[in-house]
Amino acid sequence: MNTLDNSSGKSPYSNFTALSTTLQKDHDYTITLTTGFSYFTWPEYWNVWIDYNHDGVFSEPDELAFSKILSPPAAGTPQASVSGTFKLPPSALTGPTRMRITMKRNGDPTPCETIAFGEIEDYTVNIVNNFGGGGTDDRATSLSFEAVRERTWVKLDGVFHSREAVAGFLSKNRWTASVRNAESARQPTPLTP
Ligand SMILES: [Ca+2]
Predict the structure, then answer these.
(1) Are 74 and 34 in contact (CB under 8 A)?
(2) Which of 59, 93, 99, 136 lies at a CB distance of 3.0 to 4.6 Å from 187, suitable for a disulfide?
(3) What are the structural domain ranges in the chain?
(4) 54 CA from centroid of ligand 1 (Å)
(5) How many angstroms is it from 64 CA to the middle of ligand 1?
């Protein structure tokens, strides 16, 4: 999904929150979920939850970001995948956010349950606002850099964005910075500090 790609072994619960990817709001993302089978196959119900409001609870149905049922392939098939697209709602809070991926055999998983035949994996998605399409961002009139915990963050329209959202800058008395989205690098926006 986006820049996140993780293969995991069999485990009822895995905490991969150290792994993260940056997602823009109001943008279509493709997610692919793969089940491994020993030999026999079953329908596998996949649900992906994102804690949009940062309250530590995955609420149904608002925070169910993606849901799909994998039809069982022929016995002996080692792996099968489902994929689709999802979009973050405008109301999602920005910043690091927990994403929970649940998979359950023969039934729809809720966000909090111990699954006898299935898996739960947690990841982090860093939610940012949507910058729109390519080209020069005319709104970048007040761009500032701040070092927070040894990382560089960019403040644009009053909202902090992570270093990954920024491509390059020059020192001395003139900065050239650009903000890019997943598809296209923007033109540099010259700024005088
Ligand atoms: Ca929540």
Answers:
(1) no
(2) 136
(3) 13-128, 144-191
(4) 5
(5) 10
Whether CATH 3.40.50.20 fits 13-128: no
Distance CA 100, CA 47 (A): 8
pLDDT in tens, 34-79: 988 888 999 999 999 999 999 999 998 889 999 999 999 999 998 8
How many angstroms does the Cα of residue 62 sit away from the middle of ligand 1? 8
Q: For residue 116, give every residue at least 6 positions away whose Cβ sits within 8 Å of its Cβ, in sequence order, or none.
A: none
Buried b / exposed e across 102-132, counting CB within 10 Å, b at 16+? bbbbeeebebeeebeebbbbbbbbbbbbebe
Kindly give the distance from the C-alpha atom of residue 140 to the centroid of ligand 1, in angstroms, as a whole number: 31
Tell how far the Cα of 87 is from the centroid of ligand 1, in angstroms. 16
